[in-house]
Amino acid sequence: MVKRIRISRGQPVGLKLTAAERKWLLDALTFLDEEVEDRIRNTPPSEGEVLLTLDELDLLAGSVAAEANHTEDKRLERQLERIHDRAGGQTLDGEPTRIHWTVDKVVMPTVAGSPASGAILVVTGLEGGNIRGQKHKLADGHVVRPDLAIIDDPQTTESAWSESQSARREALLAGDVLGMAGPGKKIAAILCATVIREIANKGNASRFRKTDRGQFEVADLARQ
Questions:
Q1: Alpha-carbon distances of 37 from 16, 63, 169, rounded to whole Å
Q2: What is the Cα–Cα distance from 192 to 208, expressed in whole angstroms?
Q3: Which residues contact 70 (CB under 8 A, 6 or more apart)?
Q4: Count of Cβ atoms closer than 10 Å to residue 83 Cβ
Q5: Which residues are CB-contacts of 135 (< 8 A; sequence separation ≥ 6)?
Q6: Does residue 87 contact residue 65 with C-beta atoms inside 8 Å?
Q7: Pick from 41, 39, 84, 45: which is nearest to 64 by CA?
């Protein structure tokens, strides 16, 4: 069992950084806090740990996350994300919030009473194999899987006019996306898209009906 130690505001804690990681931080971070930079620069590598307060760890984590989200250097991005995981020292009333922020995944801070507490947001493409197997391990070891999918404009104009490409995308949505919750589990889904081909080709037999500019509804519901 891990023993929790309450850390007072202003009390320094050690962040382990290799010589290479210190160089990455000092060279790569554009908006690194001056005091944090001085502590990293002036701590001899032989000491192994850089002593930072919780506020300074929070500043460092924010700078690292921002740089990781914008760099085009994939190797640097991975290194910064690893440092971010160690420097994510944000706390609330002395307890860690476990916030996590990278280029394709955000874990909202754990805050009692907040409806967004611990919410997990993941971004991935419709194709490429990254949809299957989406899951997240919580601090207590419990594994959670997605319960909501938001699909934003899954088609190009070209694919929308192709029967075969449209059918393939529908299959991906029905199989991979709606299957992310796991076998036998339900998932909610929101699809943001413009209905183009079906109404033009099928007319009154279309599954959708245009109600206003850019607005559509399911035809069966409209008939009820």
A1: 15, 11, 48
A2: 14
A3: none
A4: 23
A5: 143, 144, 145
A6: no
A7: 84
The three-state DSSP-derived secondary structure of the chain is CCCCCCCCCCCCEEEECCHHHHHHHHHHCCCCCHHHHHHHHHCCHHHCEEEECHHHHHHHHHHHHHHHHHCCCHHHHHHHHHHHHHHCCCEECCEECCCEECCCEEECCCCCCCCCCCCEEECCCCCCCCCCCCCEECCCCCEECCCEEEEECCCCHHHHCCHHHHHHHHHHHHHHHCCCCCCCCCCEEEEECCCCHHHHHHHHHCCEEEEECCEEEEHHHHHC
pLDDT 10s digits, 151-196: 988 887 787 778 788 888 888 888 889 899 988 889 999 988 777 7
On whether the pTM is more than 0.85, the answer is no
Report yes or no: 111 and 99 within 8 Å, Cβ to Cβ.
Answer: no
- 58-70: burial string, b at 16+ Cβ within 10 Å, e else: bbbbbbbbbbbee
Counting every residue written for the chain, the total comes to 224
Q: Are strands 136-137 and 120-122 parallel, antiparallel or unpaired?
A: unpaired
Backbone angles phi, psi at 113, to 5 degrees: 90, -10
Residue 101 corresponds to which tokens in the numbers above?
Answer: 């922020």
- On whether the CB atoms of residues 40 and 82 are closer than 8 A, the answer is no
**CA terminus-to-terminus distance, the chain:** 59
Question: What angle, 0 to 180 degrees and rounded to 10, lies between the N-to-C axes of helices 74-87 and 19-28?
Answer: 110
